Amino acid sequence: MPVSNSKLRKPDPFLMNEDTVNIAIAGFLKSKGFDCESPLTGRQRGVDVKASKGKIQVFVESKGSQKNGLNNDEVFDHGQIVNHLARQVHTLMKYATQYDGADTIYVLANPDIQRIRDEYHRIGKMVEKMQFICMWVQQDSNVVVESPEDLNEMLRDLNLL
């Protein structure tokens, strides 16, 4: 159930919905020379952000810290954050099965909020073993990329690191 951010023991420093995450990720990828389809918004179904550069394809599954359309203090509670991360990993595993290829990058994208990072770090080693990368959207919409070490060279070549 959503909770009031202001009533959290450590309130999130900013609120960001999934649409905002998608728009920030698409803008980041475009700024790095990727061709990017329009990011999904609202209740659209499919790949949240899909981009390509040469023969490299990128598939992004995003979540926010609050529901799309809310402009108030409500944020997702701990159980919802856990569920969202599990759904992100599950969705990316489906994409990896469907679009299997050495030239494909799979991304979990989230607002860079400590509650989400803390829960991610509980599963991070396994996410890295699956060769998924993380894109963390800052309050100012800048993006921080984190990846398994063996993908760093490719990501540097793509100007993502």
Compose a concise summary of this entry.
With 161 residues, the chain is an alpha/beta fold. The protein has one domain: Trna Endonuclease, Chain: A, domain 1 (3-Layer(aba) Sandwich).
Please, could you describe this protein's structure?
The protein has helices at residues 18-31, 78-98, 114-121, 124-129, 152-157, and strands at residues 3-4, 35-36, 49-53, 56-62, 74-75, 104-111, 132-137, 143-146. The protein is α/β, with parallel strands linked by helices and 161 residues long. It has a single domain, classed as Trna Endonuclease, Chain: A, domain 1. A 6-stranded mixed β-sheet has the order 2-3-4-6-7-8. Strands 1-5 form a two-stranded antiparallel ribbon. A hairpin with a 2-residue loop joins strand 3 (49-53) and strand 4. Helix 2 crosses helix 3. The radius of gyration is 15 Å and the shape is globular. The mean pLDDT is 95. It comes from Sporosarcina gallistercoris. This is Restriction endonuclease type IV Mrr domain-containing protein.
